[in-house]
Amino acid sequence: MDLTVQDLACARGGLPVLEGVSFTLRPGRALMLRGPNGIGKTTLLRTLAGLQPALSGTISAPPEAMAYAAHADGLKPTLSVEENLRFWARVFGQRDIARALDEFNLTELAHRPAQNLSAGQKRRLGLARLLVTGRPIWVLDEPTVSLDAASVALFGAAVAQHLRMGGSALIATHIHLGFEAVELDLTPFRARPRAMDRFDEAFA
Ligand SMILES: Nc1ncnc2c1ncn2[C@@H]1O[C@H](COP(=O)(O)OP(=O)(O)OP(=O)(O)O)[C@@H](O)[C@H]1O
């Protein structure tokens, strides 16, 4: 499924952050969001994932086509690794968790409560959840935080496999993940201060 974004504007905390954002992400492709801290990468991803409304513009794909992985891992702390994956698989109407355990090197940790995992292991479990959503468009916010080099490589391989299977990925990250991707720098889309616009109008 294509994700086409046209002339999107979005806000955070009531203030416009980005405007005029347009791109198309096709099946099998990855798009890396770049830009300095605070430019609005998280805000854009949250808007696409349906967690907040856009100020204006259009998003061709519905949030139901997307699997969103935020900064927080969103794990159930008292459930085991396997139980967490089964829980999420059920939520998304899927059954197979074996691939998720395998691709994120979680098989040996399958019976460990999530609350007893290290930060990097929790992150791996949070990302493994993507594989049990069955959703084609992965929307990922700084997915490699807490991951060591080996886990970054595992994650890169999982995304590459998702792309080969016809999925797509939109990723806010500052690092290179080892597969071919187009980059979109959000710096030119910084919203102009609206308060100043109104000020000009009032005194025109
Ligand atoms: N909860 C919030 N309430 C109000 N403003 C916020 C909130 N969270 C972020 N902002 C502001 O919104 C703007 C965009 O933030 P956002 O988190 O989308 O940027 P980012 O590009 O993802 O940054 P980073 O690279 O640091 O993660 C920033 O100016 C930030 O200060």
Automatic annotation (TrEMBL):
Pfam families: ABC_tran. It comes from the Bacteria. GO terms for molecular function: ATP binding; ATP hydrolysis activity; transmembrane transporter activity. GO terms for biological process: cytochrome complex assembly. Coiled coil: none annotated. Keywords: ATP-binding, Cytochrome c-type biogenesis, Membrane, Nucleotide-binding, Translocase, Transport. The keyword Membrane applies. Residues 3-204 form the ABC transporter domain. The keyword Transport applies. PANTHER family: ABC TRANSPORTER I FAMILY MEMBER 1 (PTHR43499:SF1). This is Heme ABC exporter ATP-binding protein CcmA. It comes from Rhodovulum strictum. The gene is ccmA.
